[in-house]
Task: inverse folding
């Protein structure tokens, strides 16, 4: 599958590397076609990945992973171009964390909306699926690092077929279907995004991001 990964940070590199390892054709998108981190990503994968602008990557990908910083996600997706996103699945991993006033960050969108919803409103013809935003990126692609992989990943979105396709990607990352919890439509992204202040506090208290939620009934 042709997959676009927007964002050259640790999350984008981790997701893009896993997708490449699984045999997908990955293009990493950034503001410029010659972004230094994107070039290093391409070099690391020895011809199995490419790089370009946000628009290049969005045009290339059948599925688009938004791995940009949450405060810049809407701008990055606008640069990707609505025409390049129409009808496509946008897998949104970002959180609207505002670090402008230092630590701990606040949420720039909260309570009455979410970043996932704002992306869906801005690109109504796209199919926005919120997932993987409640954990450290290493666990996103390797849930087996803790508890034998027995912990939960959440998914939100309006389109059932798009959710099913994203669930298949999650399963290819190692997530058990029984641990993929469907929260409902994109409005439910509010809950997973509002978890981030607690996640950050737990990270600070424990000194490590290698932890996750396990729903026990």
Result:
């Amino acid at each position: 599958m042709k997959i676009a990964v927007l964002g050259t940070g640790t999350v984008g590199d981790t997701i893009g590397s896993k997708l490449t390892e699984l045999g997908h054709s990955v293009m990493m998108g950034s503001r410029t076609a010659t972004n230094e981190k994107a070039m290093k990503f391409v070099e690391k994968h020895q011809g199995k990945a490419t790089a370009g602008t946000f628009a290049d990557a969005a045009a290339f990908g059948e599925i688009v992973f938004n791995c940009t910083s949450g405060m810049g996600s809407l701008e990055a997706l606008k640069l990707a171009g609505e025409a390049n996103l129409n009808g496509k699945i946008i897998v949104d991993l970002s959180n609207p964390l505002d670090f402008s006033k230092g630590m701990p960050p606040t949420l720039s969108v909260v309570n009455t909306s979410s970043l996932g919803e704002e992306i869906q409103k801005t690109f109504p013809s796209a199919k926005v699926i919120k997932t993987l935003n409640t954990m450290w990126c290493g666990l996103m692609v390797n849930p087996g690092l803790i508890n034998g992989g027995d912990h939960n990943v959440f998914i939100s979105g309006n389109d059932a077929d798009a959710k099913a396709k994203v669930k298949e990607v999650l399963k290819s990352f190692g997530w058990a279907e029984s641990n993929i919890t469907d929260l409902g439509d994109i409005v439910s992204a509010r809950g997973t995004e509002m978890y981030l202040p607690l996640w950050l506090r737990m990270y600070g208290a424990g000194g490590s991001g290698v932890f996750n939620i396990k729903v026990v009934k």
Notes: The radius of gyration is 16 Å. The first helix runs from residue 10 to 21. The beta strands are 2-6, 25-30, 49-53, 63-66, 89-92, 97-98, 106-107, 127-131, 153-157, 180-184. The first strand starts at residue 2 and ends at 6.
